[in-house]
Design brief:
Blueprint (H helix, E strand, L loop, with lengths): L2 H10 L6 H16 L4 H23 L1 H24 L4
Helix pairs in contact: 2-3
Organism: Candidatus Accumulibacter cognatus
Protein name: Transmembrane protein
Keywords: Membrane, Transmembrane, Transmembrane helix
């Protein structure tokens, strides 16, 4: 199997390898929060630099996977109903 074929199959689904980027970003923001001078500043740094942007990006980039998952059962039921209609009735 060539690289192009394998790459096109993996890019069509949700890219699970991007989770390493999320883990690395959260690691950096935890270290940033630990270096803050007060606990309040550390918590706010963690929330506003780490958690909220991460949740927003995962939600935005996961939208196509959510739509695909919602559409999949509808397409399967539509295909099954079309196959049932094509069967000869006796």
């Amino acid at each position: 199997m060539s690289y192009h074929i394998a790459h096109s199959k993996t890019s069509a689904t949700y890219n699970e390898r991007m989770h390493i980027v999320v883990i690395a970003w959260l690691y950096v923001t935890v270290l940033m929060a630990l270096t803050e001078t007060s606990i309040v500043a550390g918590v706010l740094t963690l929330v506003f630099y780490g958690l909220l942007p991460t949740i927003l990006l995962l939600w935005l980039f996961g939208g196509s996977a959510r739509r695909r998952a919602l559409r999949m059962p509808k397409e399967e039921t539509f295909a099954n109903s079309c196959a049932d209609q094509e069967k000869p009735r006796r």
